[in-house]
Fold each of these.
Amino acid sequence: MNTSDPAPLTEAEERAAAAQFEREGFFIAPPLIPPELLARVRPRIAAVYAGDYETGIPPNGNPPGAKEPPSALVKIDNAHRSDRTIHELVSHPAIGRWAAALNGSRMVQVFATQMLIKPPGSQGSGNVGWHQDYEYWEGALQGELFTAWVAVSDVTAESGPMRFVRGSNHWGLLKAGDFFGHNLDAIKQRIMEKNGTSAWQEVAAVLPPGGVSFHHRLSVHGSGPNLAAGPRVSFAIHLRTEKSGLRDGVRWQDAGYLNDFADPQGCPVCYRE
């Protein structure tokens, strides 16, 4: 497959993919990001981590630049506002085309991103606690929202891949997760008690560089420590469709790290029918 222009889904494949996304709450696509773009984006990730902002716009929270490799999970919000190559990656049209195929949308738009670096040897400090993305958005946004997760490094079973809980998109908004929590077992127990179920089947999103997974806003997901030799590097790209919007009475200046839909730098459209 030519990853610079992935083959379009047939109608049968599109129906099967959309059915899986609806049933299980996630879908793992073939590699979508061209190797050439990955090669260009890697040094820009290092630059943003070090505090070099090509556009002059700092990421949300204006994290201090660091010269030493991280020893714990790094999460930098909206690095795509700070760097043109990162912006190119998170708004890649292949992501938009596949996202639209999964939910039948006519428009797909980025509204926030996270640049994630999980260093090796970080043990529990590299964990991402079990959570539902909508826990962090529901105060500001409503409607059809979901996430594409792009592997920049080789995400193996040893490197702490993201893990989805199959079918948890049907559990409703539980508000029992904690992205920043390191004790995965304790968070899992809290979620299961809140949901009143013992059904918990995890699926690891093992991805090659350029691989992309998509998950529903209510899908429970998290990840464990990186036991591989090198860092696990990825982007979480939060997406919306035309069936979404700002909640009544909410102002963009009160929406935290979420970007105004009218801002093409913060909210690029990656698909339009």
Note: The first helix runs from residue 11 to 24.
Amino acid sequence: MTNWSNIEFLNPGFFWLLLLIPLVASWYFVVRKKSTATLTIPSIKGFNAGQSLLPKLKPLLHVLKLIAFTLLIIALARPRNVAVSKKIKSNKGIDIVMAIDVSASMLARDLKPNRLEALKKVATEFVNKRPNDRIGIVVYAGESFTQTPITSDKGIVKRTISEIKWGQLEGGTAIGMGLGSAVNRLKDSKAKSKVIILLTDGVNNSGFIDPKTATELAKDLEIKVYTIGIGTNGMADFPYSKNSLGQLQFRRQQVEIDEELLKHIAVETEGKYFRATNNTKLKAIYNEINKLEKTKIEEFKYYNYQEKYRLFVLIALGLLVFEYTLKKTVFKSFI
């Protein structure tokens, strides 16, 4: 079945000939009418009984020719259906692991509605922008856990991000554990580029892996680490306990992020350090990382052309044959 929305015309200049159609029609219905001989008689009462409809239909012959010529002009414009198929080839795949801090402080409300929920929204948008890369998720607090190994299934990755919540791991902030687990996910990767996005809102205070040791491992494996410190400058509402109904209680306290450590990790691995002080800044950071880590894509397009001018030619010839047949038979007496 022809998809007329994909029709293109190879020789559109022939459409200028359509301007002749109204001129030819005017000549026939105006000029030719004036040149037709007439007979004046005192009365036509004697002709009324045998009056035929055919003389009134005679202009139909000219209309058929005009339609036929219009179709021939369209055929000269060379209409054809274009079917385009695409094949995308990724020559430089990137494997990415997002190491996400899920300690209690990620529930702080300096980002809206809180740091963790703001991150989940932005991280999901980031995944949507990386259709050709494999992505894995590592979460950490006082310990670390691989939530999703690196995979090309973005549905799994986004579902994992949506299900991340506080309270699944032991309390604390083990930056070294989170970075170490992310490195472990990438150590056997065959990708030409390996990236870790490490996000935290605190200071390393737990775990049995020194962050600097994990940094050396990443450096030896040529893994680039982008570090993000999330949290406003100054004071923020932090959770500190639960009331009798199990609801979190918040109080104002100073935001503390080990920026020196995060900068060290980024510099040593040829990555970059960012500070996200609000929702807008957090989104801008992930957009920048997305631009910094470009996947080289080759797109091949295949064009399949189906000529459609033959249909217009056949219809036009059919109309001309029909017009000629009528002229030589039905309308012969009135020509």
Note: The chain has two domains: 4-34+50-84+302-334, 94-294.
Amino acid sequence: MKKIIVLFLALTFSFFAQAQNTCGIIREAAVQNILQSKALAKKYLTNGLPEDEKYIPIKFHLVGDTDGQNRVTVPKVLQTLCEVNQEFDDVGFTFYIKDDFHFIDNSVINSYSYSSSVVHNLCAAELDSQAINIFIVKDIIAPLGTPLTVYDPTGDWIVVKNSYLNKLAASHGLGHFFSLLHPFFIDMNYTVGSNAPITMEIDTSSTCAQNCETVADLICDTPPDYISIHLCTNLPVQYDYCGTEIHTMQNNIMSYYTCDNQAFTTGQALVMQGDYLKPSRDYIRSNYIPNSNIITQSPTLVSPANHSTVAANPVTLDWSDVPYTSMYLVEISKSINFSIEPQFFITTQSELTISLNDADKYHWRVTPFNEAYTCTEGLASITWSFQNTVVNTSEILDISNWALAPNPTDSAIRLTIQSRKKQDLIIQLIHPDGRLLSLENKTVIPGLNQIELPQDNIASGAYIIRLISGKASECRKIIIN
């Protein structure tokens, strides 16, 4: 049994009704999904939540328009992952960044249309088959509204609107990924925009226990949720059909409230652990244990010296190693608050060689992090500045930037190339005396490309990497140890 509440504020309520649909939840299929998760939890988790931590890979797809604009910033993604891991700590899940971030420049994906087969196919082509895939986009367009986050059960991926990327949106989407439903259930039999009353079914599980396995989210320790409003204020008194007063859990991550101290219930955690055990989740299970050590130190910048003048282009930025760090975020901008032409680079080394577009004053800073510990927003280095006096003589118009990292290197030569279009490139390794040592033909796609070149049997020393596109070329110096 369940109690039916009739609401007359159709316009106000339409947001919730639409979002119920546009979270990607198809009720019938979602119910079967959660029932399977509950069955596995009942079979294998008889003693409650397991003690062993589950390390789960995430591939973040940072989507921009075709020209590279309207993309979420890397620091925002790092902070969100930090907060998501805090919220999932009691669940027993730790999420980690798999193989760096993936940058996509595609305006079609960036205006994500949930019902578009074209968008679906474009996203499917970008998937990492060994991770949870989260696409962070500018807009989400759905049949009944503009939601903040969507779980696509067909593709098994999550989409989050970049202007609302935070722990609540990301954790809510991950909850759906692991088969959780909303703690309310809306009857969708109504006409959008009409003034007709809207009916909503209330979960009466907390007080009418015989009902809790079959209504709303099918979880008995999530209190009834009637969401007549979504602000964190005192709710009007409501009663279930047993006559018992309802006490909604306004900080439940799967609700539509935005209260502080968001959390999952134990029942929700058990369902997610059960979902993790499904054969269909084999692709996110591995024996890999990521670097999750807590970082406590900030990098110390070394060069270029603060307020110095640099008569070179490209420029090598150098800083101190930080214990337990496996990756560094390097930010550089023409403004001290990093708001003018900001650039973001991720490197595994404590130095980075970059090409600058203009002779101008630049500001830079470095933030350490590792695969599973990204709570380092307060550990950014101090900001230094330098004046560059050499104009970039770039001749390849459709390459906006490219860099060599690490440089110097004692292993493979790695190039990061930001291209405006798909194009064929020739990459040459040249001896200082002009001899051609190696040549590689590569095709790059719009967006960020990472290319690795072997340097076997090359003696230590300074060399030149030449990038050629048609009749245009650019050169960088590489030091091989």
Note: Residues 1-20, 187-206 have pLDDT under 50 and may be disordered.
Amino acid sequence: MRVALAQIVCEVGNVAANCSTLQRVARQASEEGCDAVVFPEMADTGYDMKAIVEKASTWDSGPLQLLQEMASQLGIWIVCGLSEREQGDVYNAVAVVDRNGKLAARYRKAHLFTAVGEDRFLKRGDSLTLTTIEGMHWGVMVCYDLRFPEMARSLALKGAEVIVVPSAFPFPRVSHWCTLLASRAIENQMYLVGANRAGADGDITFCGSSRVVDPYGVVLASAPEAGEHLIFAEIKKSRVAEIRGSMAVFEDRRRDLYAQE
């Protein structure tokens, strides 16, 4: 399965301009023969709490419909971080849209980043999300979720072979981003697909470095820290089986010593 990661620059609050970027990059990924393209966190509004609350769309209209049209026209899976407005609440969400333009899965960020006040503006999600893309089981996380190993392990135990992480991870914590992606991949023997923002939204400058890490911790593709980039990687179900078969991490857990799932 060929996956594209879209490291993009957004304009805060300019949903129309950001949607044009999504269209352009998705078309490029399709032309490159990709089965799926992954965009960063809050790719429609940019990462600014006030802009998110002001510009968030219901999923009955707006950016999600554009993603569905693009996926159907291009014949490609699209995974994208979006704002989501529902009955007065706003969520930091991810949409997974299949090749036919149908919403295959929705995830709402469970761990809100209190350091920048996400918890004051947004409502947290309360469930894990798993979906199947081209025969592989994908779990969905967003940015700050990476710091909670229990979440990745729970997704792995539920069958995830890939975890996708749309993000707006900032400087100066680029080393944390790279280390956390590799750690979650190695400890769960799965692919980590991290699409991160570039550029700056207000006082926050994003660290880019989008990457795909394989189940053994090998970086298959990576982007620089700055600028817009589209990178590609092949991910294989057989690679997950190979690594899990070579080291019985899940079977060797001491569940008598720590909390069980």
Note: The first helix runs from residue 15 to 31.
